[in-house]
Amino acid sequence: NAGVTQTPKFQVLKTGQSMTLQCAQDMNHNSMYWYRQDPGMGLRLIYYSASEGTTDKGEVPNGYNVSRLNKREFSLRLESAAPSQTSVYFCASTRPLGDTQYFGPGTRLTVL
Amino acid sequence: EDKVVQSPLSLVVHEGDTVTLNCSYEVTNFRSLLWYKQEKKAPTFLFMLTSSGIEKKSGRLSSILDKKELFSILNITATQTGDSAVYLCAVGLNTGNQFYFGTGTSLTVIP
């Protein structure tokens, strides 16, 4: 069991470039989440998918899109990166009716 | 607006001290409160609380929830340098299986 995996681990982009962060879980979890973590800000929810086929906005969705490709995979796309999107991005998942979130190792993104 | 507030923001203690971390919340559709430990990487789960007044314990760590006053505390006794980390509080909602996180308390334990 790999748990929750994320790729890439590090990425540097120029303003205006696009990229997709990938997340996969092998625990058969229903719900998946994307968070960003900035210094002094805790974890802020960008988008979540309560179950396969559904996605919803969280606290800070602007500038991002998501795709729940199947039950295992949940990707986060930045269409036109901005320096304000420099952050550490975490993907997480939970089992059905479960509350414990399992987190991926994170992606450190820098936008110049 | 749903919010989760943790205090203090940071704390420096000596090994052997006891610390209490606080988490208060104002959310609609409360389901659970969770504590995580984060040591420069992904958060790891510590406790989940759903019922008022029932203490959860794991070794030197314990936590309790007060649903009437809308807060939880995390206690760490006989602190060790390995307890140095950011401690995150999160509240789970019944709507859409969402979670709101506090900003965290940064704990530093010095020898």
Short description:
With 112 residues, chain A is mostly beta strands. In chain A, 0% of the residues lie in helices and 52% in strands. In chain A, strands 2, 4, 5, 6, 9, 10 and 11 form a seven-stranded mixed β-sheet that branches.
Molecular structure report:
The complex is a heterodimer of chains A (112) and B (111). In chain A, 0% of the residues lie in helices and 52% in strands. Chain A is built from no helices and 11 strands. The mean pLDDT of chain A is 93. Chain B is built from no helices and 11 strands. In chain B, strands 2, 4, 5, 9, 10 and 11 form a 6-stranded mixed β-sheet that branches. A 5-stranded antiparallel β-sheet of chain B has the order 1-3-8-7-6, with no helix packed on it. The mean pLDDT of chain B is 93. At the A-B interface, strand 4, strand 5 and strand 10 of A face strand 4, strand 5, strand 9 and strand 10 of B.
Number of strands of chain A: 11
Structural class by helix and strand composition of chain A: mainly beta
Biggest sheet descriptor of chain B: 6 strands, mixed
Amino- and carboxy-terminal Cα gap of chain A: 36 Å
* H/E element order of chain B: EEEEEEEEEEE
Supply the helix-strand structural class of chain B: mainly beta
Q: Give the amount of beta strand of chain A, in percent.
A: over 45%
Roughly how much helix do the residues of chain B carry, as a percent range? Answer: under 10%
